[in-house]
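Figure 3 (text version): structure tokens given as input.
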């Protein structure tokens, strides 16, 4: 698959077939993630694979309760209240696997490094016929004492990227991108442009100057 095509086609997948993801495919995702760039080539990432549905269900329950407790401090509390208060809502959308990319917190760029690895894993998943979605809802509880314990991680680790993985039920429709604001500085001249994101990368569209 062409890289530009893959970047454009990757979608957050929230509906999966019940079939398991083979250990070989999960290993390929870990390998792809590990080819990501990292600050000072530290390669600080650690991977946790969870295929235990009971544990994933339990993490979902704990994560929802954890966020609901801290809701007043969050943006759009009403929106979250409805979703997270629903006992039938599984934050992992019943996906068959969870891949958590984490690192020791002492690394200055551990979040950036793990996020780079996560994007690699999500693009690789697409290429391998799998779907993926970063589940930010899981992060707060996974980084609690009990959450890190549940993943078998030491307390000085930070779970950066919880990614669900599975075989998608259907191809996801495209999700439109907002117009990107760009400061374009060339030859001492700053121009502010608004860059419409084309449906396919590589197509050159007109740039609108503000
Ligand atoms: C840091 C981060 C956290 C996210 N958390 C969630 C989440 O908790 N639940 C969810 O359904 N999607 C989550 N997503 C997926 C986004 O909603 C999704 O990427 C966005 O709507 C754009 O859709 P696309 O990925 O299909 O282009 C998250 C994505 C990122 C990058």
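Below: residues designed for each position.
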């Amino acid at each position: 698959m062409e890289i530009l095509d893959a970047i454009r086609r990757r979608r957050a997948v929230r509906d999966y077939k019940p079939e398991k993801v083979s250990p070989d495919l999960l290993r390929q995702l870990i390998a792809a993630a590990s080819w990501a760039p990292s600050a000072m080539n530290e390669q600080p990432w650690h991977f946790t694979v969870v295929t235990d549905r009971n544990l994933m269900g339990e993490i979902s329950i704990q994560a929802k309760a954890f966020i609901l407790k801290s809701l007043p401090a969050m943006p759009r509390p009403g929106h979250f209240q409805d979703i997270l208060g629903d006992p039938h809502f599984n934050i992992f959308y019943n996906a068959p696997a969870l891949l958590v990319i984490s690192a020791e917190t002492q690394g200055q760029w551990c979040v950036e490094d793990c996020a780079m690895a996560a994007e690699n894993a999500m693009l690789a998943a697409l290429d391998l016929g799998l779907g993926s979605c970063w589940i930010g809802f899981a992060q707060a509880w996974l980084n609690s004492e009990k959450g890190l314990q549940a993943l078998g991680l030491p307390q000085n680790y930070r779970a950066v990227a919880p990614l669900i993985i599975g075989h998608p039920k259907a191809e996801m429709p495209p999700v439109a991108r907002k117009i990107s604001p760009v400061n374009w500085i060339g030859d001492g001249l700053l121009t502010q442009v608004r860059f419409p994101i084309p449906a396919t990368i590589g197509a050159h569209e007109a740039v609108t100057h503000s």
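The chain has a mean pLDDT of 93.
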